[in-house]
From TrEMBL:
The gene is metC. Belongs to the trans-sulfuration enzymes family. Keywords: Lyase, Pyridoxal phosphate. One of its GO terms (biological process) is transsulfuration. The lineage of its organism: Bacteria, Pseudomonadati, Pseudomonadota, Alphaproteobacteria, Caulobacterales. The keyword Membrane does not apply. This is Cystathionine beta-lyase. Its cofactor is pyridoxal 5'-phosphate. SUPFAM superfamilies: PLP-dependent transferases. The keyword DNA repair does not apply. The modification N6-(pyridoxal phosphate)lysine is found at K200. Coiled coil: none annotated.
Length: 384
């Protein structure tokens, strides 16, 4: 063969791979089939978009975490929510979405689903299963839950709602990112589809995006996989490797997030500038009983309601922080803080707090240092 051909064709087959702790990263779009008959064999992997070695290993590990037969991967947590919804909804369907849901979920419902003839109605997270079922219509196909809710950390009685919905033939989908698939097991509590943003705690290092969805229902599992194919989603093999690496230490990191978070939350409860702390693991929290019954632990994310003060003072507080970064997302090793009030304006159910709402993510730093940083912020708030 000519040298040009030999340069193209040589080195395609690696020698026998050494046995490493983690699976190798395969990068490839084309999958070479053994024979012509295999090209259209749906039982075989025929194209790289469905995931090669590292995505397949991640799916297997996540299925173990979720207690499910299979997991579908998406390029972000939001894509997992929207992808799962598109997989099970059609024109003419009605969806009930908890009013405390992740804001981009709400944006998808209002902008995208509306264009395709799907109606979205938002319900108060305080509604119990009977009150929620009273809102259901003959065309209600799906109820979307989130517990604790984004920003306001409302708890829902997920098992009761899931059971009531199932009895009516209504599917349930939960955003379980706060529970990370570890602290709360939605499928074991009767939820149809469990979704989480792997970007947060599973990744754990704030450096890659991914989401997952899983179900115990084989038919819906096929619908999730088909929708992923139909839309053309795929995940990077390198990101899947990073997610799998993060997953290995998830059960080790989460108790530290919980301990640090509760230490800071309890300190904040005693501060004169604080009206209340929104954290379901605190005994005085309205959702504590449900959390204690259904969850095996807490993460590091919670809300802080300040006593009445100005936006200028809130900004001074945040700007004075040096250990807390000012940024969205959460679930990494680092601590973060944001001001939430601008996001509350889109809620259908009015949110009545004493003052401004902050959201804190407590990372893996020493809580004594984090408390000192917050003290610095409160001094700046007072000065402003």
């Amino acid at each position: 063969m000519d040298e040009k051909t030999r340069l193209i064709r040589s080195g395609l087959q690696a020698p026998t791979l050494a046995r490493t702790v983690n699976p190798p990263i395969q990068r490839g779009s084309t999958v070479l089939m053994p024979n012509a008959a295999s090209l259209y064999d749906d039982g075989q992997l025929t194209y790289g978009i469905t995931g090669l070695s590292s995505p397949a290993a991640l799916q297997s590990a996540l299925a173990e975490l979720e207690g499910s037969p299979d997991v579908t991967l998406y390029p972000s947590g939001l894509a997992a929510i929207t992808g799962a919804m598109m997989a099970v909804l059609k024109a003419g369907d009605d969806v009930l979405v908890v009013d405390s849901a992740y804001k981009p979920t709400r944006r998808f419902c209002d902008r995208f689903l509306t264009r395709f003839g799907v109606t979205t109605r938002y319900y108060d997270p305080a509604l119990d299963a009977d009150a929620l079922m009273a809102l259901a219509q003959p065309n209600t196909r799906l109820i979307l839950l989130e517990a604790p809710g984004s920003l306001t950390f409302d708890m829902q009685d997920v098992p009761a709602i899931a059971a009531a919905a199932s009895a009516r033939g209504i599917l349930t989908l939960i955003d379980n990112t706060w529970g990370a698939g570890l602290l709360f097991k939605p499928l074991a509590h009767g939820v149809t589809i469990s979704v989480q943003a792997l970007t947060k705690y599973v990744g754990g290092h704030s450096d890659c995006f991914m989401g997952s969805a899983t179900t115990m229902d084989a038919v819906i599992g096929d619908e999730l996989g088909n929708a992923m194919w139909d839309v053309g989603w795929s995940v990077s093999p390198d990101d899947a490797y990073a997610m799998l690496r993060g997953l290995r230490t998830l059960a080790t990191r989460m108790p530290r997030h919980e301990q640090n978070g509760l230490a800071v939350a309890r300190w904040l409860e005693q501060r004169p500038e604080v009206a209340r702390v929104l954290h379901p693991a605190l005994p005085d929290d309205p959702g504590h009983a449900i959390w204690k019954r259904d969850f095996s632990g807490a993460c590091g994310l919670f809300g802080v309601v300040l006593k009445p003060t100005t936006q200028r003072s809130v900004h001074a507080f945040l700007d004075a922080l040096t250990l807390f970064g000012l940024g969205f997302s959460w679930g990494g090793f680092e601590s973060l803080a944001i001001h939430c009030d601008p996001q509350l304006k889109s809620r259908s159910t009015p949110v009545d707090f004493e003052g401004p709402l902050l959201r804190l993510h407590i990372g893996l730093e020493d809580p004594i240092d984090l408390i000192a940083d917050l003290e610095r912020g409160f001094r700046a708030l007072a000065a402003a």
